[in-house]
Write a structure and sequence with these properties.
By secondary structure, this protein is an alpha+beta fold. It has one domain. The chain is built from two helices and six strands, in the order ββββαββα. Strands 1, 2, 3, 4, 5 and 6 form a six-stranded antiparallel sheet that branches. Strand 1 and strand 2 form a beta hairpin. The chain is globular and about 65 Å long. It starts with 13 loop residues before the first strand and ends in an 11-residue tail after the last helix.
Length: about 150
């Protein structure tokens, strides 16, 4: 009986995202694979960035879900359970903010939506641009309140 060989699974596409690692001092770009799950295009977080059991979520940085010609839609991806699962303090965010950010824990990613992004219609991701995206993402990370109890905007 002849064995049936399966076609190899094609690799996932990759995008550049901004990494805020718990044990580093400076945000940096990394390439990560992402997947199209039919609803949204979340980055496929590499397993070694997860410190604890977590629930990864994405939140818009600039409270806009429609890009403008001047500014793209940006997201942060973070562990929504970091306040209760024992994740380490994010040294990168603390260092980059000069200690002004609340106590973010666990690894955080900065993600850029594609120019064609429309919430619920076309949710493609694009490569982050460190020089352009970092200031707006840092503003979001330093102005977020309620980290210990409930995450909410000022």
């Amino acid at each position: 009986m002849a064995s049936v060989q399966q076609e190899p699974t094609p690799p996932l596409p990759t995008i550049d995202v901004i990494l805020f690692a718990v044990n580093e001092d400076t945000p940096r770009l990394i390439k990560v694979p992402y997947k199209d799950d039919g609803l949204a295009h979340f980055i496929q977080t590499p397993g070694w960035y997860l410190e604890r059991e977590s629930f990864r979520t994405q939140s818009p940085v600039n409270n806009r879900l429609t890009p403008t010609r001047k500014r793209p839609v940006l997201f942060i991806e973070y562990d929504d359970m970091f306040a209760i699962n024992g994740s380490e303090l994010n040294r990168c965010i603390q260092t980059a903010s000069g200690g002004k950010a609340p106590a973010w824990r666990g690894t955080v990613f900065g993600v850029r939506a594609a120019p064609s992004y429309r919430a619920g219609v076309s949710e493609k991701m694009a490569n982050a641009v460190l020089e352009e995206d970092l200031p707006e993402i840092m503003d979001c990370l330093t102005s977020w309140v309620g980290i210990q109890d409930q995450v909410r905007w000022i």
